[in-house]
């Protein structure tokens, strides 16, 4: 896999000024900063028990040094409530993330837990339904008496649960739930709610930047997008950014198949007839995989340049039939940072592949990176607060240490903004290239869009910010 050189990347402001043109380069560069690695010692076998899966016993590798507590520590385990999706269409996205969470909890417990306290997962399946998610949250707080909660949520679930969280005084870390309006409209001054993943506006803004980097001459754009809120929102943000970068851009066709469609032929024919320079696929999961397969038969990828705001997460599902040259973006990519430059990513991928070779193509997706980040952010925040208080910290003290907290993750360093509790990290883009080694298309070359290029300042809505460019 090649990494785009720093010289090949073009800033948003340079795009607007029109001073340079993008060049895709194949020079491998190291990820900047200091690299953290897992400790090499093997740990004894440990067990993690959840309420929905059988007990798992496995040999694990220590992930980080353990702090030896000297102050007052409760004797019981840490009860971490987990609400995620195991049934319904969302399961394919969230189940791998839960598997990654289990892996990391086992590693931490194998080292003795957090300040000597083992982590006990209390797991609930929301099925992707907001009312069920809220009900599970209330039961975890009142009946299960959990200490903290993490939610692998859809956008609708995140927006439904946030107000309830703020009334509960229970620290809750949302892994996905990437609706832009979560912190722009629903919970504008969060105290107990944190979110890990880059949210939808960041996905679309970074993807639009990548489109212009890749094809600076493109002026005519079309979309095949899922006909519901997310699909329309992503296209709206992408085109808003493109209009700033390409003032004379033109939308020549829009096709909106229903979510979970199985036949895209009419939509593909519609956009091909408009002869666009670029076709954006605002689809995800099986919808995207199906559209790519059918588009190949219609010559879509020979007649047009094609991009996908979610493609980096799902193109593995197309297998060896995937066309080369699709511009794909994602929140985390399993090959970035390069394994030889970022040991955390290498260890994370190798462990996931060893345990789950048939899940998600055998390699972790962005939900998995979010799950890793949740448990390690919580662990680090508790330990930092402990060093300052000399005892097991109160929830408010953990929150105070979590604000502005930066941690190394498989996808590189990520940090929470104090002002809105949004975590920020790189967005990844690259071109598909079929790989015999992996048995599916990987992204090669690949490059990263940094947070400062795609994230509105705290308190500023994305549209106001983009319009100010």
List keywords for this structure.
Rossmann fold, seven-stranded mixed beta sheet, 469 residues, 38% helix, 16 helices, 2 domains, alpha/beta, five-stranded parallel beta sheet
Notes on the protein architecture:
This protein has 469 residues and is α/β, with parallel strands linked by helices. 38% of the residues lie in helices and 18% in strands. The protein has two domains: 6-30 and 201-330 and 426-467, Rossmann fold; 46-198 and 339-420, 3-Layer(aba) Sandwich (Rossmann fold). Helix 6 packs across helix 7. The chain is globular, with a radius of gyration of 22 Å. 49% of the residues are buried. Residues 6-64 have low confidence and may be disordered.
CATH architecture type of the largest domain: 3-Layer(aba) Sandwich
Average pLDDT, rounded to a whole number, is 88
Helix content: 25-40%
How much is the radius of gyration in Å? 22 Å
What is the beta-strand fraction? 15-25%
Task: Write the CATH homologous superfamily of the largest domain.
Answer: Response regulator
Number of strands: 17
Question: How far is it from the N-terminal to the C-terminal residue, by CA?
Answer: 33 Å
Q: Mind summarizing the main beta sheet? A: 7 strands, mixed
CATH level-1 class of the largest domain: Alpha Beta
Counting DSSP H or I runs of 4 or more residues, the number of helices is: 16
Total number of distinct structural domains: 2
Instruction: Assign an overall shape.
Output: globular
Q: Low-confidence spans: pLDDT under 50, at least 5 residues?
A: 6-64
Strand order of the largest sheet: 9-8-10-11-12-16-17
Structural class: alpha/beta
What's the CATH topology label of the largest domain? Rossmann fold
